[in-house]
Amino acid sequence: MSSKKELRIGMVGYGFMGRTHSNAYRRVGNFFPELEYQPILKAICGRNQERTQAFADQWGYESIETDWKKLIARDDIDAVDICTPNNMHAEIAIAAAEAGKMVLCEKPLARTVAEAQPMVDAIEKAGVPNTVYFNYRRLPSVTLAKQLIDAGKLGRIFHYRANFLQDWTISPELPQGGEGLWRLDNAAAGSGVTGDLLAHCIDTAMWLNGGIKDVSAMTETFIKERVHTGTGEKQEVTIDDACMFHCHFDNGSLGLFESTRYARGHKALYTFEINGEHASIKWNLHDLNRLEYFDHRDESQERGWRSIHVTDSDHPYMDKWWVPGLSIGYEHSFVHQIADFLKALGEGKPCSPTFKEAQETQKVCEAVLESAKAKSWKDTGVNW
Amino acid sequence: MSSKKELRIGMVGYGFMGRTHSNAYRRVGNFFPELEYQPILKAICGRNQERTQAFADQWGYESIETDWKKLIARDDIDAVDICTPNNMHAEIAIAAAEAGKMVLCEKPLARTVAEAQPMVDAIEKAGVPNTVYFNYRRLPSVTLAKQLIDAGKLGRIFHYRANFLQDWTISPELPQGGEGLWRLDNAAAGSGVTGDLLAHCIDTAMWLNGGIKDVSAMTETFIKERVHTGTGEKQEVTIDDACMFHCHFDNGSLGLFESTRYARGHKALYTFEINGEHASIKWNLHDLNRLEYFDHRDESQERGWRSIHVTDSDHPYMDKWWVPGLSIGYEHSFVHQIADFLKALGEGKPCSPTFKEAQETQKVCEAVLESAKAKSWKDTGVNW
Amino acid sequence: MSSKKELRIGMVGYGFMGRTHSNAYRRVGNFFPELEYQPILKAICGRNQERTQAFADQWGYESIETDWKKLIARDDIDAVDICTPNNMHAEIAIAAAEAGKMVLCEKPLARTVAEAQPMVDAIEKAGVPNTVYFNYRRLPSVTLAKQLIDAGKLGRIFHYRANFLQDWTISPELPQGGEGLWRLDNAAAGSGVTGDLLAHCIDTAMWLNGGIKDVSAMTETFIKERVHTGTGEKQEVTIDDACMFHCHFDNGSLGLFESTRYARGHKALYTFEINGEHASIKWNLHDLNRLEYFDHRDESQERGWRSIHVTDSDHPYMDKWWVPGLSIGYEHSFVHQIADFLKALGEGKPCSPTFKEAQETQKVCEAVLESAKAKSWKDTGVNW
Amino acid sequence: MSSKKELRIGMVGYGFMGRTHSNAYRRVGNFFPELEYQPILKAICGRNQERTQAFADQWGYESIETDWKKLIARDDIDAVDICTPNNMHAEIAIAAAEAGKMVLCEKPLARTVAEAQPMVDAIEKAGVPNTVYFNYRRLPSVTLAKQLIDAGKLGRIFHYRANFLQDWTISPELPQGGEGLWRLDNAAAGSGVTGDLLAHCIDTAMWLNGGIKDVSAMTETFIKERVHTGTGEKQEVTIDDACMFHCHFDNGSLGLFESTRYARGHKALYTFEINGEHASIKWNLHDLNRLEYFDHRDESQERGWRSIHVTDSDHPYMDKWWVPGLSIGYEHSFVHQIADFLKALGEGKPCSPTFKEAQETQKVCEAVLESAKAKSWKDTGVNW
After folding, report:
1. Residue C243's closest CA among C364, C142, C360?
2. Where in the sequence of chain C do the CATH 3.30.360.10 domains occur?
3. For chain B, N or C: smaller number of CB within 10 Å?
4. C302 to chain A: which residues are within 8 Å by CB?
5. pLDDT tens sequence across B116-142
6. Pairing relation of β-strands C242-249 and C254-260?
7. Tens of pLDDT, residues D65-116
8. D275, D293, D296, D379: best to mutate for the C interface, most C CBs within 10 A
9. What average pLDDT does the segment D358-381 reach?
């Protein structure tokens, strides 16, 4: 392995996303041995020293920091990976870029377009490699959808629809804020389901189907007050519990999006469907090894939705894993994103979605929230 | 059978709906032998004498008419069944009601709220039994959904979503207007997918989940011009090819609706889902013997969406048919509606949906079309 | 309708099968108006006069008989339809044939090969049109399977597997014998699941895949004693509650069959699958409007099981019913069989499966039961 | 991490199974940090030095060996993991046990019962911890099935059915023997689908449902000759391409098993279903995050097969991974088996299935092959 170039990672945040990213760094070399770069888990940074150390022990980080500014200041760190709550993304990313570090940031890029813009500016000014973890693109089934679309299989597109349904916040007893629950706290998260879930749907949609031009949205907060973990007091809930919108894509197709955490029976059911003149595609995250495909060019008596088990060696990324029929899981999407980042690094190319691209998704999220508030259509200003 | 009371039917129109209604009248006595009333196929009315006679022969109508006014004038007709294109509903229904006939009308009630209002008025003034064929309510799986909701199984409702997806008008070569294609002609149909498909979704939705208060909609006409069968000329297409809207229900839940005839791969995929605090329900027309049900009160490790094969004798209407596991089809929904109409007749009760109820659905359709045109929210004025 | 030839039906038995056959006779003219022959429900025969009359009233039979010999003796009967328990099939069929009547017999043909042989002989000697109600062949999805196989789509066949799973006899409290329960009484039925359920599987299998050469079987009776409705006493249960066998087809492929009434959760789950060199087919009765089809010749990345919703007008029989996407049900298989019988009658051709063909299925059933008893392989002697 | 006890692994074989085991060793510490033991990848052994070194580099083995006897002789190896073709299992396992090493052996235990017996004897004599990789038990969905059964949810069991369907050997051009294809060579594999695929089915079945008493089987070799990679000559194929059998379990239930590599459309479709008096369970490997469960005690109108997405934190093993709704994959079953082995090691307990238990599965496999050859029932001699 001596011929490998090291990419020394400093990660900020050791929550759920810290685990998924750490796992990706640790596995990528086993499954993508051809990569020139190999990640080294140099340091993990968190505010609680004891827990940060425990995380370092569990995942094999060489050292810990409790102040992210010190992490960024270290000479032995090449890339900063940001896994904090959303409200910390901007400050860390800008400082890291200014220090000449590569930056890998968990999605959404920031809480608002305004907050994200200096991040994009700093990254571009520094000219550092960067990426944002819209990881679902890298599931083999989703990448296969991209390939089918890019090959022109669907023809003119008429419809794109997506939803992301969860049910974990239905109980009014659930508090807001604090560890694991900052997603319910608008100050930390910037929004509710829009930034958390719809951002994924929007990123995938624009990747597959091009820019979203304008939107008309509705949001709702079903549970109006929750105890805040920070204060122990009941406080107004200011996130969106549910959000739905319709829109026009630049290519003339219509979009319909919905997200909620109040859809009883659905844990993390991200689905999308795209209807074209010749063919259609359906996908859902609960059955992520499958892609449903309908091709109208099949002989008429034999037409039907094909349930493709995306586990053959000629399916995207699948030559790296097992044998046909054997499934992979959620975490593999992160391994693939890291692999693509390392490959792009070796080739001197950008790794999509970059900060700049993620900012376009941010614009749609913001237009959606504004539209819902104003009860009117909004242009997104997206340039995809 | 001499103890049965006869209900002498005069039907106007012998197209697709004429067949479904005729079949229902012919079968209801075999499967609901307990009914006091039995329908007698007295007369069928159509403009083309030869084809009307052929239809009469095929379905066992005793006589034919080629002028619906004559049909209505006949003393030996108790009830008029209207299966014409939408633009004929009002005139016929009003005349029939004024002649003291019962009226059974295919949906949608009319092309517009304004057109429908005198129909409702005439029916109410005449005090005649009446019903509108929103037949999908009467599928056992859909009626089971209603029973579960009415029994309070779902608790507070958060979400209702429905779509009705077809793909039969994608080809630009398809003409508009004329027999079988009047649904593409705004003058005959009054609207495109909104009146044809969304009307079904809206009727079911309000039946299951109560009134729809306000809507925000978008429509699209993908193919701008088609040859008109009547003129042989290319003419502007003025129907909505696709329509989607979000809305508030009176009970505080959110609705999301979509309909299109450009969803490649879906022939007549009407689906709905309703998410409650405790339980959720999903349904689709392509698998109409099934109802999907998720109950959060199940033990946590064993929770899952239940695929209920709605073919047991304790399921709605199913004691009338075969044995558990043996499916019924689309046409049975009409048999059930006729059975319910005859039963209600015997009991002196109304058979839902009445003209008055169907007018509420009409109001939602109209608000949807107006909202799409105005690009703004519209109140529906629905009183459910 | 005056140009139609009448086929005057006398039916024996008014149980479950009496209803399915009666419905088929009543509907066939509405949906197959081109047929030269039209059935006339001349007489229904049952032992209980009152209930026979009620059935006649419900289904529109012109007259009743309480002695099937009188029915057969009537000059105004052209065809005898046998819906009795299995132990009555032979005597009635032989007498009917000898009286020159056409014979339509519910499956299985008889209780044993020995009992069936004189039936076949009598039919052949009389030269009367005849058929046996292995109705599942006539579901559009199953007929489509036949067409795909006959078109050579599957190539060399390797495997055929079928099962028929029910769960209605699990309770030990269920009695045997008597109305509705004669299927648990070996004297009336001749066997348990083998004649009742596997007979269907075997008929379909040989129709689709050719003759079955030899079998190795196992049977089981889980509940050893049940109260007999006739005597009121607990008696040994002598039917097979479950039966499974493997076999060789004449074409070299392997078969695997299973049937049981103790598969909790399955009401009437008849399934089959056939695996060929190039393509495979799957089907199940609970979703009878669908056929699953996998074609290895599809482009490798896009291969998947296609779920064909068999409701297009170019699917078998479906031009007679509704529009694409709209389902039909179980009973339609009987309408199709009657339609095919009437068509064959008009053309002077046999309507498969004939008595002679049904006797081949009987041979497999008997070999299966003998194999299970002897715990050894048995040749079937089938000549398909 | 200094407090951990090291378990120094020496692995023999670096094929497909070498990768799955290596991955498991590398990941177990990240996801099961509470374990007292941590595996150290001390040495990998293969005949080809260059490729062995490449594998060592890819997976982080500290050293390589090209002679397994040297590996076993090393003092710095605590446990030997055997990933070779089946014909090498016995010699290596016996030598390792005699050297006092723990032994983890890929399934099937050996080619025959006779070959396996001295392995079991050596292991028992040495008293070393041991396990055999019947990994599918450790999928959360399969372990959940075990828990439901052990909790008595199903009641008396009537039926167990399983099949394992593949389609990768249909082409007659595929050679036998050599790397990746030794599974087609009877000398190396000992049998075809019986040892490769049915062994899994049998292990799961006896784990869930108890011992298999006697069997009646059929095998087939569809392609009679294939080029042997070793000789370059066409040679007779002596493995079983397909195998099916029915059987009795000790608990009185009936079993039906089938395996083939000629089921077009199925890549690795291992399925099982178990039908009990009160409830039933279904599972398949292509959708391994799901378990289907039917409970007859549900209210009658609401009964249906529940599709349990086995990704909640109270599902087996799932507290170690992500959040509800996020899938895991095939390889996780190996991580779980290693975790269970390490846990058992810490507790001084055996880790099932042990060599002794795997020998019982071997007995069923052998009885199956003998039954097929003799065309008669065979007792298995299993003592579960």
Report:
1. C364
2. 137-329+350-379
3. N
4. 148, 293, 295, 306, 308
5. 999 999 999 999 999 999 999 999 999
6. antiparallel
7. 999 999 999 999 999 999 999 999 999 999 999 999 999 999 999 999 999 9
8. D275
9. 98
Alpha-carbon gap, residue B138 to A136, rounded angstroms: 41
CA atoms of D159 and D209, how far apart (whole Å): 10
Tokens 């992210």 sit on residue:
A68
Inform me whether the pLDDT recorded for D2 exceeds 70.
no
Bridge partners of B104, per DSSP, are B81, B131
What are B's interface residues with A at a Cβ cutoff of 8 A? 154, 158-159, 161, 165, 167, 170, 216, 218, 220, 222, 242, 244-246, 254, 256, 258, 260, 262-266, 275-280, 294, 296, 305, 375-377
How would you classify the pairing of strands B63-65 and B37-45?
A: parallel
Instruction: Give the pLDDT band (50/70/90) at residue B1.
Output: very low
C245 in Cβ contact with C218 (< 8 Å) = yes
Closest chain C residue by Cα to residue B326: C330
Q: Look at A307 and C309 and tell me if their CB atoms are within 8 Å.
A: no
Residue-averaged pLDDT of chain D: 97
Between B30, B59, B312, which is nearest C23 by CB?
B30
Q: Which of D10, D100, D23 is nearest to D58 (CA)?
A: D23
Cα–Cα distance measured from residue A342 to residue A347, given in angstroms and rounded to the nearest whole number? 9
Fold of C137-329+350-379: Dihydrodipicolinate Reductase; domain 2 (3.30.360)
Subunit partners of chain B (3 or more CB pairs within 8 A) = A, C, D
> Does the distance separating the beta carbons of D256 and C264 come in below 8 Å?
no
Distance in angstroms (rounded) separating the CA atoms of residues D249 and D271: 18
For residue A302, what pLDDT is reported?
97
* B interface with C, Cβ–Cβ below 8 Å: 1, 16, 20, 22-23, 26-27, 29-30, 33, 57-60, 166, 168, 266-269, 285-289, 309, 311-312, 321-332
Supply the pLDDT for residue B177: 87
CATH number of this structure's domain D5-136, picked from the four choices 1.10.274.10, 1.10.287.1490, 2.40.110.10, 3.40.50.720: 3.40.50.720
Q: Which residue of A has its CA nearest to B278?
A: A264
Name the phi and psi angles at C115, rounded to 5: -70, -35
Superfamily of domain D138-379: Dihydrodipicolinate Reductase; domain 2 (3.30.360.10)
Q: Measuring CA to CA, which residue among A112, A138, A114 is closest to residue A194?
A: A112
CB contact under 8 A, A307 and C307: yes
pLDDT higher than 80, residue B180: no
Distance, in Å, from the CA atom of D9 to the CA atom of D39, rounded to the nearest integer, reads: 7
Those residues with Cβ within 8 angstroms of residue D235's Cβ, 6 or more apart along the chain or in another chain: D176, D225, D226, D227, D228
CATH for B137-379, options being 3.30.360.10, 3.30.70.20, 3.30.565.10, 2.40.40.20: 3.30.360.10
- Quickly list DSSP for D357-378: HHHHHHHHHHHHHHHHHHTB-E
CB C217 within 8 A of CB C243: yes
| A304/C314 CB distance under 8 A | no
Residue D236 sits at φ, ψ, to 5 deg, of -60, 140
Cβ–Cβ gap A16/D323 under 8 Å = yes
Residue C1 has pLDDT above 50, yes or no: no
Give yes or no for residue B268 having a pLDDT over 90. Answer: yes
* Fold annotation for B5-135: Rossmann fold (3.40.50)
CA distance A280 to chain B (A): 6
Among candidates D82, D276, D47, which has minimal Cα distance to D160? D276
Label residue A2 by pLDDT band (50, 70, 90): low
Separation in Å, CA of D273 to nearest CA in chain B? 16
In whole angstroms, give the CA distance from residue A67 to residue A48. Answer: 10
